[in-house]
Amino acid sequence: DSTGSFEYSALLIARKEAQIRHNALEAARVATNRVLSEKLGNSYLLQILPYPHVVLRENKMIFGAHADRLQDGMRRAFGKAIGTAARVKSDQPVIMVSINEDGLEVAKESLKRGGAKLPMPCRITIEKIGD
Length: 131
Known about the structure:
With 131 residues, this protein is an alpha+beta fold. The protein has two helices and seven strands. The strands form two sheets. It has a four-stranded antiparallel beta sheet with strand order 3-6-1-7, with helices on one face. Helix 1 (22-40) packs antiparallel against helix 2 (104-115). The longest helix has 19 residues, at 22-40.
């Protein structure tokens, strides 16, 4: 029931500030969601909170014989976009799962799996949602 009538919310919270690439966020979402959907069917709500706004760029350099025509060093080195990332501060929540009491252990396990895909240490907190 995704009507917002859940009793608890479990949060995965970043312990350090970091930059999480969009593919790491997606990997964490997939890992977390897999555990939840296997054990709880669809009686949960999963939210990924940060949005990857930061554009990552790369100034490609080609090395090797006769590749010198393509190299311009740092001249006009704006770079091509190679992906996006979300900047996360310390103590900022990254993933939120809303569940009922019977899903608490599953939610903890799923957030642990998701947190393993992220580039910084995380902690898990459980909050009761006040009505």
